[in-house]
Amino acid sequence: MPRAASICLVHGCTKRTARAGRCGEHAPSEQPWARKSARNLLKDSAWERQVRPRALARDSFACLVCGACERLEVDHILPIAKGGTWALDNAQTLCRRCHEEKTARDRRKK
Q1: Domain count for the chain
Q2: Do residues 72 and 97 both lie within one domain?
Q3: Which end of the chain is more exposed for a tag (fewer CB within 10 A), N or C?
């Protein structure tokens, strides 16, 4: 059985819905999952393509804490949320275990 037609969620609009509970005039112009925050746009472009590979090469593809060469991650020395930058001088190579420990220490500091 087909669903009953519903009206637009925008106050005062009585047109039938087209997408996301809104009429064609009030429907979002793009899919919500297609939008990215400014932080993720920067991460996807500069961090992944430029900073991360350079940090790995600079640190000889080894963890700076324990020297492991597997499960490497590039970490912000000073987290972005605490005023750090996306620059190479704020990046360091850590293995997953050391990265998790550093993240836990950072969270305890607040």
Answers
A1: 2
A2: yes
A3: N
Both tokens of 75, joined, read: 């970490």
73 shares a domain with 44 = yes
Averaged pLDDT in 10-residue chunks for the chain of 110 residues: 74 79 77 60 69 93 95 91 88 96 87
Give the structural domain span for 28. Answer: 1-35
Q: Which H/E stretch holds residue 95? A: strand 91-95
On whether the CB atoms of residues 86 and 49 are closer than 8 A, the answer is: no
Predicted pLDDT at 38: 57
pLDDT score at 2: 65
Using CA of residue 85, residue 87, residue 88, residue 93, what is the dihedral sign?
positive
pTM comes to 0.59
What's the CA gap between 91 and 78, in Å, rounded? 8
Residues 43 and 74 in one domain: yes
